[in-house]
Please model this.
Amino acid sequence: MSATIERFGPASDPEAIGIAIERDGVAVVEGLLPPNVVDRVNADVETAIAEADPQEELFNPIMQAFHGPHTKQVTGVPGISPTFATEVMCHPLLLALCDRILLPTCARYQLNLGHLLQRGPGAEEQWLHRDEAVWSDLPQPHPDVQLASVIALVDFTRENGATRVVPGSHRWADRQLLPAEQMTHAPPTPDQIAYAAMPAGSAVVYTGGTIHAGGANSTDLPRRGAHLSYCLGWLRTEENNVLSVPPRVAATLPRKAQELLGYGMHDSIPRGGGYLGMVRLQDPVDLLARGELKT
Model:
């Protein structure tokens, strides 16, 4: 029997969802996005998906193998889809969970990356992994530095590659090891793996320390989902969001979206610290509002 993931609705108390994530490392929020938002995101990215080349050479061959030859990937989605930037990235429920899980360890959290992954027929299972491994130089143990999600833009089923998650793995002893050492440990057993099957518009939300991976697509239809994650404001992000969404595009978005994209300064002076990311000794998001950043 496979493991299970606790499920919630879009009107659920963020406190209850946060407790489940802290306990299990993962939760599913069904119906997070209404159908009209899903439709608009899909329409916004359609051209980019059509132009994406699964065979495009990446900066590292390991990444090529990780995603496989049947996965189309679109990066920098907040700069492509205004709907994604405003109604998905800034979703109040996701930000409430970030407030609970990330804000105790930073003055401001930020977008880590907002990508779209379309896993086509024949896509094989991804390697099980922890997303926080990208910051492998962080000392162990450390608090949660990331909150991630995979948002279904079509119905996710076990057959078309629903995300596989290992509930409770954020508390495993091997998390205290370096990522390379984690790989030498026995992999999760089948009964420890849960499948985030869920209708379009739903999200599986998990911490950076939770083991997970994309599933295999054995159907004849592509499985489209968004990978949206946030991290502490003083960490370097996986995607350079201020280049992916340059000032001329960011200027068209609400201030909250601009802050999440990294235009907002990380000001920890009130917490007894300093500031990070200033321009001319000012908060770049204020310069953006005044039209003083080059576009």
About this structure: The two ends are 55 Å apart (CA to CA).
